[in-house]
Fold each of these.
Amino acid sequence: MAEAALTPEDILTAAEEVLRRYGPAKATVVDVARALGVSHGTVYRHFPSKAALRGAVTRRWLDRAHAALPGIAAGPEEPRERLRHWLAALFRAKQEKALADPELFATYQVLVDESSELIAEHVSGLEAQLAGIIVEGQEQGSFGSGDPGELGHVVFQATAHYHDPAYAEEWSRPGVEGEFEAVVGFVLRGLAS
């Protein structure tokens, strides 16, 4: 690939493939550059460090995995159904990623653990989406009073078993969907006015 035509997106795609092939412990910037047919200095012109490249890969993965969530949060459904739909979409996205490509999912778990600031920012954005749904539910009288930000945080934490990668091994168990629905029902009853 010509160095002048190389984009950050090209580098991220190559980095993802290198991570898939070698795993996070062995993948290097030199491997990414080699896969692109460029010098490692060219990669560093776009990403100043290995950590910056790995963080960008992680952000890209999270953004793709959760791409549907902002649209659901701002959607036309009544807040109770929107909240149910949002939580189900989050669970499905994580479940599909974990089950479809477990090796790559394990790689992303390592990258996520390295990116605590990025993850905190990402979780904050997800909790803000939940808070927005809760505000509308409070305004319409379907949810009780309380600080929407705190409630969004509580809902996110209460459902962590179905989106936190630490629980990924349990997402293929028989009956997990029913358990998820029961937890969401419990959360919705707790939010009711």
Amino acid sequence: MVDMLGRGDAIPLNRALELLDNTTFTKPEIERIPLEDICGRILAEAISSDEDLPHFSRSTMDGYALKAEDTFGVTETLPAYVKVIDEVSMGKTPSFHIARGEAAKIPTGGMLPAGADAVLMFEHSQPFGGHDIEVLKALAPGDNVIHKGQDISKGAALLFRGHKLRPQDMGALAAIGICNVLVYKKPVVSIISTGDEIIPPGRPLNGAEVRDINSYNLSGLLLNNGAMPSRKGIYRDDFNTIYSIVTEAVKTSQMVLITGGSSVGTLDMTGKIIDRLGRPGVIFHGVAVKPGKPLIAGCVDGTPVFGLPGHPAAVTVSFEVFIKEVLRRLTGELQGESGTCKNIIKARLTSNISSQPARTDFIWVKILNKDGELYAQPVLSKSGLIASLVKADGVIEIPADKRGLDKGDEVIVRLF
């Protein structure tokens, strides 16, 4: 344990991320699944093509297959003439050969006959008695043709380990005859809600009770990031009760999230439970961020365990900033070569925002489009209010070395 909130200074954001990055977590398991089920899964093997795609040269247009040299110098006022000797059928290998002065009718996708090296579109020709046509446009070799292996060549690397599979990837794999692939198993993440005041959403409120928001919010965040949430239920603030359910969760899941019990006080048991369950125990407790300062991060014999604050906004920030990167490691997903995230945009701030020095602040924003330029409008509220999350499109970060941001500043928005 590095710094206990209330027993020392909360550690800086960068230091907390560094500690997580240097912690060894259990590697994800692998399974083989059929092609139709791979979309959104993380590839656990590199895939190269065992064949050329296409495996024959084919036409990209309806027209006539011919030799390009028969059209050199052609214009609409100075046409050339070729004889149509046959027709290509879809799915059939042409049995004839195209010689100088000859052509064959061919459909889009049809196999280019031997001797031909270009395709003349129908609209650039016209009949000229019998089997002859007038050629009204000059062609270069390869015009309107996809050559053998031009899409994917035999032996070429197609997809890499750690790649998140998309619909187009499914199509490419089908095209080269791959019917099943190795993927990483989706990590199961246990969500444990704690607090004597927490009740299920289906029950009417009584006195100082509050409904369970965080386990549902976390379930959605996990689903959107390739994990399988397992909501374990709501448990009262009792050490033995929580210790028992966390012990079971560590054995049956690849990550454990505990909401509540992370701030210093008489009911703060999460850190003690993590330390008792296994090594290395608590990695840090307390980060100089707002919201989310009381966050606990730990590891129990390779399984990451997080103790999250009870406020919904703090839970979301903790997930986006800390948990998501650890979860990515558990799913096996690798970042793209550019190192950039697809859910990040740039926008102009619509108003001034103040910030406390030596603390990283996260501010919810709504994205506005004014005359084609994007603006970030702060959605200011206290961390216990779920409605602020509903209204927001994303979050911006004010670094610890700044006292705030000014209206008109360009900011980076991490979209939800």
Amino acid sequence: MGSEEDADVIIVNTCAFIDKAKEESIDEILGALNVKADSNGAKKVIITGCLAKRYADELKAEFEEADAILGIADYDRIVETIEKVADDGKVFSCFSADKFYADRVLTTPYHYAYLKIADGCDNHCTYCAIPKIRGKYRSERMEDLLKEARKLADDGVKELILVAQDVSRYGIDFDGKPHIFELVRELEKLDFEWIRLLYLYPEMVNDEFIDFVKNEPKVVKYMDVPLQHIDSELLKMMNRRVSEDYVRALVKKIKDAGITLRTTFICGFPGESEAQYDKLKEFILQEKFDFAGFFAYSREEGTPADKLPNHLDNKVKEARANALTALQTKIIKEKNKSLVGKTLRVIYDDIDYDKQMFVGRAEGQAPDIDNVVLFGATDEVHIGEFYEVKITGSDGIDLVGEIV
């Protein structure tokens, strides 16, 4: 892996989703510019991504030393931009609409890949700036997706992970109705073993959707459904088009179908009372989610929630998120105990050299966001292949086992 000190051109790909992401992006930009300064300007710095799209003019004024600023629609211009800045040129392009990129470079391990099926969002949750950054919901053409997926399958990808701001609404901009089932059934005809669906909005996950995930042969029994809260009043203020009763019923249906459920919650939304927070905490204790992420509410300028009264202190928001994260960690550890002695089908992803163990995932574990299965083997194993692993214990939140 190259370092900034070794590079001729440093590309900083930024995020602007929440305050922490913006802070991290700014820190990376400053670090890159410091490296450029130390080289007496010999190195070039290109800023791109969501922060560049959302705050293009501000970044241009604040970071005059940057050689180029590109938005989310200009990734295919990276090579020509590098060539231009190498000749001491400047590039500023953040306004065009994004487009489908047919010739992608796979940056994940070769056995799994993400397929972005749509961009933008029309849900307009009051706390979220995505519509301002990414624009309206736009589904990629099915023929383009199938062509890209076919190449991935031919190249040996075993697990295809469908992503978008809202996967469940794929194709709704074509004719007013979603076409996610149609797309997945076409993808199932290709040589994938697992197809994973991330980011499904609760109001779209009806009985038909649950049955689809449960019964489709190549779709992993896993749903990522961001619930955000359980209190009906707060859900309404967030413009989440569901109620407490709906959420409770939905969680029960997903569990009854034997589907692993990952979700996310916002802590400290404007006006969240102690009683509402306690209700959320009790909900977590009661439902014992397989996986859940907790985020302190991030105040985003230009969003409706930014104008709400009764914003909570950052320390209160962080404390609530941290407390629920600790609670969820205990829940996962307890769930791990119930898996000891069971055998799971695991895809081998990597090696943990410190622990001297192979690293894999069962179908109820998504890459990078969930826990993993650490396992040993007496025979030779190959990355990207599937193995039957008997669970013998745990290491923190990770499972530990041996190949059967």
